[in-house]
Amino acid sequence: MTLDLLTAGQSAVIRRVGGSGALRRRLMDMGLGRGVTISMIKVAPLGDPVAYNVLGYQLSLRKSEARLIEIEVA
Amino acid sequence: MVAHALTIALAGNPNVGKSTLFNALTGSHQHVGNWPGKTVEKKEGSLRIGGDDIIVVDLPGTYSLTAYSIEEIISRDFILLEKPGAVVVVVDAANLERNLYLVTQLMELDIPLVLALNMLDLARQRGMHIDVRLLSARLGGIPVVEVVGNSGIGIESLKEAIRSIVRRDFAGSVHIPYDEAVEAELPALEQAVGNAGFARPRWMAIKLLEGDLQVMDQVAQNGGGALVAAAQAAMARIEAATGEDAETLLTDGRYQFIMRLSDGVLTRSIVGRTASERLDHVLTHRLLGLPIFLLMMWGVFQLTANVSAPLVDWMDGVVNGIFGRWVAALLSVTGLSGTWVESLLVGGVLAGVGGVLVFVPVLMALYFAIGVLEDSGYMARAAFVMDRAMRVVGLHGKSFLPMLVGFGCNVPAVYATRTLEHEIDRKVTGFLVTFMSCGARLPVYVVVGSAIFGAQAGNLIFAMYILGIVVALVTGFVLKRGVYRDQPPQPFVMELPPYRAPRLRDIWRQMSNRTGSFIREAGTIILATSVVIWLLLALPVDGQSAFDDVAPEQSAFGALSQAVAPIFAPAGFGNWQATGALVSGVVAKEVVVSTMNQIMIGESLQAGATAAEADAPSLLDDLGEIGTSLVETAVLTVQETINIVPRTLNLIPGLGVPEVTLLDTGAADDTTALEASLARLFTPLSALAFTSFVLLYTPCMTTVAAMRQEFGTRWALYQVVYALVVAWAVAVLIFQGGRLLGLGG
Predict the structure, then answer these.
(1) Distance in Å, alpha carbon of A50 to nearest chain B alpha carbon
(2) Quick one: average pLDDT of B167-181?
């Protein structure tokens, strides 16, 4: 499944980072690599973007960006 | 050997306390400007270590060193081309793993590195323990120094580490091992890079495998076409062997290196929810998040628009009134009193200086507000809360603040775009903030509105604000969907840093640095424009009047207005009086009303200057006046600060909380005479067209100067031309459309 489907409090392991070019590079630079554990914190008041916990810090992604990341729920 | 100043660079992720450390190292020896030709701020400072003078360059905060963002390219190019003696990489101890990612990239550049481990106190609070000696050892022996930037702890050790590293030969740090398939290709590629005569073979080989566009271009242009082809063949082999692209494998390699490294270096114990997390629960709450955001933004608006206003008036009074009298008094000693020299100095130069200085309180207020929002960590949440709504019009969540500030004044609004991360977002937002109806345009609507529409003036004012917003949103849409159609969407991917108390010392430093660079860089243009306008008004074109003693109609200014006027005929205000007001409005929108006064009723603009001739107060009187008016200003500032509360409460309809009046500033200017002549000049339709034009046309020269400083001359020119065209088109559309609908001419 993809990261945007993760619900609040749930965590998962990243399997693959999709997308291309600057966006993909940026996602990987921010710590979204294979095997990294990520958990979902909350959705913004207007329904998008979403806040995640990864490598011990908080990262916010738009749902369209989270959709590019394949995960496996632990 | 010739003694030369040594340069070191400061690198690090955003929000790691890099600015604090930069301030702690360089103190007040700083210079703030922009990187050449870029919209990115460059900070440079100096310090002495032992007997050496060292220049410290603060590189933009980045997470990585790729070729995809200007900040990263700037940092990388600086390191590669300027070859600093050492790079101090600031690392947030509470966020070690992600911060080490940048460190791995710097290690590959083969430059002397010092790692400054900041925020260890925060890390401990979060139950993290870091073995500093083991960390240094696993990074190949690069010095790791613990610092607490805001208390000065560790600064001396850091200086010592810098000194020792720039003196000894750099041994090189450890190599990051990559996937077998990648390592199999690297030696041959490195060899080929070396043979082609490029420096840093391993780094270059890695970047080629990564498909780094900037490096590939550079290699290809320097006769390395075969090298690029070899790299591409290697990439294909790697992908065939592993089923993964080389870029992914390289990134994986770096993170695996970090994970192995942190094992044993970093130990975590479980702690409960931190204060920051509890705060975040409220500030980005599903229901409360948006109201809190709007309240914060309203506070910023009040601060820039109202709280700074008394100081602006004081500055204006001192420069144009009292300084004007002093200049006149000085000139009378030299016998130049009453000549064109006095007129040039008072009406041209001093007016220009005043034009620059009046913005100082506004910008200080803005930079204070931005400093608090950014330093506390709230700015990222503001973008988080607002992004969804702003994206509908193609903008970023952080575009909201500059647009709102624009309602107070467009100048700080342009500078407020600095909070946006991506250059395109910055430029697009900067392009459209000028359509936000600023405070200086309001008097025009009020005077024209009450002259033509009487009690309905309020509707006109409201319509103007709405029109500005609509034009801004349409412009943003056109830019994003038209001009930047082919640009990939800017990633939102943003860190939400932990909250912390804003550090006032750093904020103050940023306020004064940035305001100083405004005075230096925007000041010249403003001064020049002011002198040009003075010259136009002083130059006679009728062949009879003397220089600097000419009625507006007979001056070059009048001739210019008359020549331009026919352009506005289709919009219903093709007379030279309205045009003249618009021409002078290019200087500052608040001049539109006073120019109309001057032209139509012959009232002098320089009321202060003429009063001075009649009865000149003594120097002591003047100094006394500066003092008392400053006290009054302080009282008024307090009053405006208190009044934020009733003004905010009064946003709720039906709630009439009275505002506090600590000091009565007297009645507003009397404009009844002007209104009478305006009623003869305008019809309701042409008045509507005129106010729309005033709203939309060329922003004032200070805003143009600010845009030039932030986005470059070309972008500022595009904006000026665009605004003129749009303003004219809208005015004509209103006038002609209205006539077609039979609303009368």
Answers:
(1) 8
(2) 79
Q: State the ipTM, two decimals.
A: 0.96
| A30:B98 CB<8 A | yes
Tokens representing residue B584 in the block: 């002078």
Amino acid found at B167:
R
Domain ranges, ordered by start, for chain B: 6-167, 180-268, 293-609+669-740
CATH of domain A3-73: 2.30.30.90
Q: Is B345 exposed, middle or buried (0-12, 13-18, 19+ CB in 10 A)?
A: buried
DSSP structure string for B71-87: HHHHHHHIIIII--SEE
Distance CA B11, CA B5 (A): 19
Looking at CA atoms only, how far is residue A51 from chain B in angstroms?
A: 8
CB of B599 within 8 A of CB of B581?
yes
Report pLDDT digits (tens) over B549-600. Answer: 777 778 888 888 899 999 999 999 988 888 888 988 888 887 788 777 777 7
Classify domain B6-167 at the CATH superfamily level: P-loop containing nucleotide triphosphate hydrolases (3.40.50.300)
Backbone angles phi, psi at B564, to 5 degrees: -80, -30
For the stretch B289-307, pLDDT in tens is 999 998 888 888 888 778 8
Beta bridge partners of B270: none
Q: What is the pLDDT of residue B690?
A: 94
Inter-chain CB proximity A45 and B63 less than 8 Å? no
For residues B480 and B424, give the distance between their C-alpha atoms in angstroms, rounded to a whole number: 9
Using CB atoms, pick whichever of B252, B388, B496 lies closest to residue A34. Answer: B252
Residue of B nearest to A22 (CA): B68
Pairing of strands B86-92, B41-49: unpaired
Tens of pLDDT, residues B484-519? 887 777 788 899 998 988 989 889 988 888 888 888
Q: Which CATH code, of 1.10.357.10, 3.40.710.10, 3.30.70.270, 1.10.287.1770, is assigned to B180-268?
A: 1.10.287.1770
**Residue B607: pLDDT band by 50, 70, 90 thresholds?**
very low
Q: What is the pLDDT of residues B650-671, one digit of tens each?
A: 777 777 778 878 777 665 556 6
- Rounded distance between C-alpha atoms, residue B346 and residue B538, angstroms: 13
CB-CB contact of B147 with B153 (8 Å): yes
pLDDT of residue B123: 86
Rounded CA Rg of chain A: 11
Mean pLDDT of B368-386: 90
The amino acid that residue B464 corresponds to is M
Residue A23 is nearest to which of B268, B287, B491, comparing CB atoms? B491
Q: How far is A41 from chain B (nearest CA, A)?
A: 10
A60–B495 CB contact, under 8 Å: yes
Rounded Cα distance, B580 and B316, in Å: 23
